[in-house]
Amino acid sequence: MDRQSRMAARFVDIDYDTPLLLSPNLRDWLPAGHLAHFILEAVEEMDLRQVRVNERGTGHAQYPPRMLLALLLYGYATGTFSSRRLEQASFDSVPVRMICGDTHPDHDTICTFRRANQELLQETFVRVLELAQALKFLQVGEITVAVDGTKILANASKHGAVSYEHAGKTIMQLEGEVQALLAKAEQADSTPLKEGLTIPEEIQRRQERKAKLAAARAEIEARAAARAAAEMAAYQAKLAARAAQAAAGKKPRGKEPQAPSPEPKPGDQYNFTDPESRIMKAGSGQHFEQSYNAQAAVDVDSRLIVGERVSAAPNDKEQLVPTVAAIAPPVASVAAVLADTGFYSETAVRQVEQDPAGQPTGTTVYAAVEKTGHHRTVADLEQPAEPSAPPAAASPIETMKHRLKTAVGKAKYRLRQQTVEPVFGIIKSVLGFRQFHLRGGEKVSLEWCLVCVAYNLKRLHRLAGGRGALAGR
Predict the structure, then answer these.
(1) 230-247 burial, b for 16+ CB within 10 Å, e for fewer?
(2) Are 337 and 348 in contact (CB under 8 A)?
(3) How far apart are CA 105 and CA 83, in angstroms?
């Protein structure tokens, strides 16, 4: 076919001038199954009597708390975390404009509402789980959860931190410089300072810096003392266990436990921007970042987050008990807890599986006690026989190893990796939440709760197939 015989290309007519006859109802501007509709319906069901509004004392009308809550949840569910970006989205984004009812709350209003309503967000976390149960996506009681932690960057640079050792050296250096400046001030014929600099101002600057460093060292010392006090119970338990073994005529295993020292380590850090954050290993452990340890307990069936909290501890060794305790009341009971080797300790497992009176709680922990490679040998491909039961005198770690070698234990533990790690992957890569925007432990906990609620709503929306939040109730 030659060029002349070809049919002329046709293009859609784009008309920028003819007025559009849009529906007067903002809800009609979005498809029926849109996430914004789902979040609005969910929020409309919630009790907001405990909400705190921004009392400015001007007499001006306030934005409705229900709308601001829906705005924050939709923003975090779609990767818009900044209050300034949410303010701009009320002009640019059709879903946000619909949620705001064609109003435009300023960034200060949004930020203040978020910062002042930690109790509301915690209550919202519970209400969303109750909604999941009403929609039959979350089982009531006897669930299996996988727990894990992930490092989230703090809103502070690691370069704004100082170590205990370096702070001490800097204080000594500053003291020497102050003495040198005082001596220089007493010399009538001393060489003048550079233009714009004065000896009194330089002395004051160094004294202020010295005071900040001294305060940092005092805080590090207090943390070290608290850490030693927290580790003392585990140390005494190890001593008691070794004494019991010796009394039974058995040779205690392992090295003699060392008493925890209240003295700070030379590398203990203090960050001036966010003092409650910590330097933590990041990525594959080859570098360090100023971070928080964000914890989550995830239901293996629905992949909904049922428990959340934030820790400043750089590892998970003491996080099993508080993370399980953070599981929300709607869950009612937990049948099994899956955790990797970083969470395991004999004391933690015992506290989860037994109440203070020593009675079983009904929860069984499946925690790895040693790292294993990913490569499968020929022996791994063969169907193994069920291992024989451990002896009555078996140690807790031997009991846990046996538990994970059984068919039930292997099947349950395989669920851990495919449950909690994808949740963190979605939060970091899909939602794009890799750094906290608030500072301080309390505010960071508030923001992590908000992230988890937003994730749960997004997950519920997907499980519901885009239908209304109240459909099928």
Answers:
(1) eeeebeeebeebbeeeee
(2) no
(3) 10
Q: Averaged over 452-462, what is the pLDDT?
A: 96
Rounded (10°) CA dihedral 403, 404, 405, 408:
80
CB 104 within 8 A of CB 97: no
Rounded to the nearest 10 degrees, what angle do helices 65-77 and 107-116 cross at? 90
Q: 272 Cβ partners below 8 Å, 6+ apart?
A: 160, 161, 162, 212, 216
Q: Hey, is 207 helix, strand or coil?
A: helix
Interatomic CA distance for residues 364 and 449, integer angstroms: 26
Integer distance in angstroms from the first to the last C-alpha of the chain? Answer: 62
Place of tokens 């992230």: 451
Provide the token pair at 274.
């966010």
Quick one: which of 52, 92, 61 has its CA closest to 75? 92
Tell me the angle at which helices 199-247 and 164-186 cross, rounded to the nearest 10 degrees. Answer: 150
Structure tokens at 421: 């790690």
Q: pLDDT tens, 315-327?
A: 998 999 999 999 9
Q: Which two tokens stand for residue 95?
A: 């879903």
Strands 287-299 and 305-311 turn out to be antiparallel
418 close to 426: Cβ distance less than 8 angstroms:
no
Distance set, CA 391 to CA 5, 369, 398 (Å): 89, 18, 9
Q: What is the pLDDT of residue 394?
A: 83
3-state SS, one letter per residue, for 435-446 = ECCCCCHHHHHH
Q: Which residue's structure tokens are 């969303």?
A: 128
Q: In what helix (H) or strand (E) does residue 201 lie, and over which residues does it extend?
A: helix 199-247
What is the sign of the dihedral through the CA atoms of 462, 466, 470 and 473?
A: negative
Half-sphere CA count of 345, side-chain side, radius 13 A:
17
Q: Which helix (H) or strand (E) element contains residue 38?
A: helix 35-44
Query: Strand 161-163 to strand 269-271: parallel, antiparallel, or no bridges (unpaired)?
Result: antiparallel
Nearest to 324 by CA among 282, 362, 281, 278: 362
What is the band of 50 on the pLDDT scale with cuts at 50, 70, 90?
A: low
Model confidence at 197: pLDDT above 80:
yes
